[in-house]
UniProtKB/TrEMBL annotation:
Coiled coil: none annotated. Catalyzes the conversion of 4-hydroxy-tetrahydrodipicolinate (HTPA) to tetrahydrodipicolinate. This is 4-hydroxy-tetrahydrodipicolinate reductase. Its EC number is 1.17.1.8. It comes from Micromonospora acroterricola.
Amino acid sequence: MTDEQWRNPDEPVRVGVLGARGRMGIEVCRAVDAADDLEVVAMVDQGDGLSAASDAEVVVDFTTPDVVMDNLRWCIDQGINAVVGTTGFTEQRLEQVRGWLAGKPGVGVVIAPNFGIGAVLMMQFAARAARHFESVEIIEQHHPRKLDAPSGTATHTARQIARARAEAGLGPVPDATKDEVPGARGAEIDGVRVHAVRATGLVAHQEVLFGTTGETLTIRHDSYDRASFMPGVLLAVRAVRNRPGLTVGLDALLD
Ligand SMILES: NC(=O)C1=CN([C@@H]2O[C@H](COP(=O)(O)OP(=O)(O)OC[C@H]3O[C@@H](n4cnc5c(N)ncnc54)[C@H](OP(=O)(O)O)[C@@H]3O)[C@@H](O)[C@H]2O)C=CC1
Ligand SMILES: O=C(O)C1=N[C@H](C(=O)O)C[C@H](O)C1
């Protein structure tokens, strides 16, 4: 271990926040600031330049899908661990991140589509239920300033459900409907229909509706306040330095 890498374990972990003036960034700065074992050393937003976060041990990124890959590449190159909540992570992007990390064996990255503990459980419950129902649809609901649709959470849930259905040998979801208007039946992700609702007053909500003969099951999660994501973010910030490589989702941190 070099002198630069050595740290006094009694000193707070140095955290940089990217997207610090955004809805989530503001909340993350507040939560890190309130934690005795963590300190905010950089608040970086559009136009500030990433070098402001050079002194961070862990960077937290809540920016936009357009810029997050450049941010992450920079963090990994600098040897800085990263906790990422920004959406837009396709399998191809995740593979790219794994490639970057291969050249930096000590660096950890946690990417989670949703840091809400209840949301993580909702996704786990949905994956568990998936094998028992022939029908399934996802309805995600968010505030109207959200830039992307469907949500990262809905995409992740659909993929997990599709994997569980395939493992259980289930065929396609039955559906004889022909769209009279394009989009009426929502988007399709790995064979699972996903509907995105946007309305003022909402924060982040998702329902997974399962159906089989004579019964339905609805699994629902609601984030009414962005504070709901903070326990998961802080959990990841505390864990990431001891988890080299890529961790996708909070599941492994909650076990
Ligand atoms: N995983 C999870 O649990 C959650 C994930 N999210 C995701 O997090 C992301 C952010 O959400 P939210 O906070 O609502 O969005 P906001 O638009 O409120 O915040 C994003 C911030 O990032 C800034 N920004 C843009 N480019 C850069 C850059 N290159 N460097 C630094 N900052 C930059 C934006 O600045 P400007 O406005 O000037 O462009 C803005 O202040 C979204 O992808 C969202 O889906 C949200 C909630 C929970
Ligand atoms: O933009 C948001 O607000 C959220 N984004 C994430 C997503 O797309 O799943 C997580 C949560 O739903 C809030």
